[in-house]
Amino acid sequence: MFLFNLVEKRKTYFIISGVIIGLGILAIVYSFITTGSPFLLGVDFRGGARFEIQFTAPVSEAAVEEVFVDAGVTNPSIIALRGENLQNAWQIRTEPVTPEEVQAIEARLNDLAPLVPDSTQVESVSGTVAGEVTNAAIIAVLVASAIILVYIMVVFRQVPNPFRYGVCAVVAMLHDLLVIFGIAALTGMILGWEVDALFLTAVLTVAGFSLQDTIVVFDRIRENISKRPLERYERVVNRSILETIHRSLATQLNAMFIMVAILLFGGASIKPFIAILFVGLLSGTYSSIFTAVPLLVAWEKNEIPFLKA
């Protein structure tokens, strides 16, 4: 007898997921109505200017940001550059600026600490590049979904209805992507966090983690079905969850502790990316146990009206 029957309350899990995703969709719709886009877009998508500067002495990120804000630049994206001969170097992405504004900003930066001679570069950034990257990311997610579907159908061919396992894994991944899309829209409205190229990195990372977590649980279900052919399906699934949950939690918690530390003590420019990644991994851990598996059980028991056998 199991102490926890996790799949028994599957309707509750579906309602929780539906409410969270529904609120996220409302945030996206509101953002689209007020800003013309589903998220608050950063310079990478809108186009603008890119500054690359190097100081002769250490300067804090907050001090660099203050210079740009005082010059009338809203939400500059600031990244510390690392590498050979790149000490005290920064990259700043901003909205479009005039040559006069560039000169004024350079003078203010030089007041913080002397700039390395001939190290300052200012270039225009095209939003069309980010559009191409976005299209590539969408294609990557679609191709990954198709590959995972075929992969699971082949690997799980010994269990009944292997196609269902693949579909449930892809649905769980889409669940996590919808969650982070909603969070991105919400943080844009409340905190003014803009979506930049790093957001696409977070999307692909979350998709990978989500599929990995779900496949781990499904693989244990496949093994237990072979070992216990006479056991009830729900009991096999429950056993499989309890046998793998410690692995999923251990892996994700290690990553989440690091992300919390970065959120608390890291630079402001990296916080939106880390926050989205944190929520995505949290959602991935949840969906692999409380979305993919319950959906599979509901499908196997003909509880989904439009998918009844």
- Major beta-sheet overview: 4 strands, antiparallel
**Element-by-element helix/strand order:** HHEHEEHEHHHHH
Overall geometry comes to elongated
SSE-based structural type: alpha+beta
- CATH homologous superfamily grouping of the largest domain: Multidrug efflux transporter AcrB transmembrane domain
Q: Whole-Å distance between the termini?
A: 30 Å
- The fraction of residues assigned to DSSP E strands is 5-15%
CATH architecture of the largest domain: Up-down Bundle
What is the CATH topology classification name of the largest domain? Answer: Multidrug efflux transporter AcrB transmembrane fold
Strand order of the largest sheet: 2-3-1-4
Radius of gyration: 24 Å
Instruction: Kindly give the count of domains.
Output: 2
Poorly predicted regions are none
Overall pLDDT: 86
Please give the CATH class of the largest domain.
Mainly Alpha
Helix content, binned percent: 55-70%
**Number of strand elements:** 4
How many H/I helices? Answer: 9
Tag the structure with descriptive keywords:
Alpha-Beta Plaits; 9 helices; 4 strands; Multidrug efflux transporter AcrB transmembrane fold; alpha+beta; 4-stranded antiparallel sheet
Write the layout of secondary structure elements.
Elements: H1 10-35, H2 43-46, E1 48-54, H3 61-70, E2 77-81, E3 89-94, H4 99-112, E4 121-125, H5 127-155, H6 162-190, H7 197-227, H8 233-265, H9 271-300
Antiparallel strand pairs: 1-3, 1-4, 2-3
Helix pairs in contact: 1-6, 1-9, 3-4, 5-6, 5-7, 6-7, 6-9, 7-8, 7-9, 8-9
